[in-house]
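Q: I'm a student working through a structural biology exercise. My instructor gave each of us a protein and asked us to get a predicted structure, then write a short paragraph describing it. Mine is Arylacetamide deacetylase like 3. I'm not confident about reading structure output yet, so if you can add a plain explanation after the tokens, that would really help. Here is the sequence I was given:
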Amino acid sequence: MAVLLLPLLMAACAFLGVGLWVICSHFLTADIPAAIGHPVKLRVLDCLFLLLLRWGMIFEKLRICSMPRFVRFMHDLRPLKEDPDVVVTDLHYGTIPVKLYQPKAFSCIPRPGIVFYHGGGAVLGSLKTHHVICCHLSKKSGSVVLSVGYRRLPQHKFPVAVRDCIAATIHFLKSLNVYGVDPDRVVVCGDSVGGGVATIVCQKLLDCPDLPKIRAQILVYAILQAVDFQSPSYQQNRNIPLLNWNFAFYCWSCYLDINPSWKSTIMKGAHLPAEVWEKYSKWLGAENIPERFKKKSYRPMPREPLNEAAYLETNLALDLMNSPLIAEDEVMSQLPEACIVSCEYDLLRDHSLLFKKRLEDLGVPVTWHHMEDGFHGVLSTFDMGYLQFPCSTRILNAMVHFLNKL
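A: Happy to help. First, here is the predicted structure for Arylacetamide deacetylase like 3. I'll explain a few features afterward.
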């Protein structure tokens, strides 16, 4: 009996030790800007997130399960909340799981349609984590919402997630009459990596005249390029929860199947040749970012000479299915109207600012909301009770307002 209990006791001690380490090393030392309201909430949220990551890494080292699987399992333990005004149906488009949200209220005209792609860096996030958000969008905008459960890491690397989302979107667009959706009012929407996927879907479907055109795109702190990691927001917000540089690089390197040993090389810009930087600097350069976002803690960094071995392994980042922000003007100018939400204390803030400028320069209508107290992942706190941030409600309200104007 004692032999059987020993491993359990050791595991319990390990988990307790990790918990104490996270609390002592992160709760009091986390980089929380003064402008973010409710700093204690964010410290608690950050500690809980780091605990799940650390425990997941222990499980991974013990070969019980991968870290992403463990964290997703824990996130999905919360029971789904039912909304009496929304009908939720679980479906499969081929092998791709999706959730369909339809308002119960009667409508004598076809409804708007929303295809939603959840965030999580292709590591975290699921149909369940964004369930309440999709319910809210369906109810408040009177829309039929399709949430796509694309495949994620560690088993499924680039470009599996994007291809799943494109396939599910095409299936939905071909079935609009079944769901009572107006083909002239279909919107793609997502947060974080899901926001990037929304733009990629728009770009990929431009050459599909047999499908209804996407009416608009809603991008909430979207990942829009995987090339440059020296912009102001990468310097200013590299240690701010919930997306710091270390976790962002982990997601990026796992998704593209790149050796993490290239981390410092990539950070210094030595993973791409000078001609590539010259070609894309007109769109990615810091001069495209408004001055007010460069006033604090930003210092332009010279790029180091090319490391050819790093380039051979990382040039996949230039694929437009990773970096839709660097698509040619001919493609960008055809994109639909956009609603862009950026957060001041987000590592990826400048993605939104650069994308906004590109669209506006090409005459594409843009509605922009900047959350001065926002951070990456804040939308997901919408249904977290005590840990909810008011900023999440403002973001959802902005999304609903944009939808209702279409």
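A: Here are two points you could use in your paragraph. The longest strand covers residues 181-191. The chain has 15 helices and eight strands. It's a good idea to check both against the output above yourself.
Q: Great, thank you!
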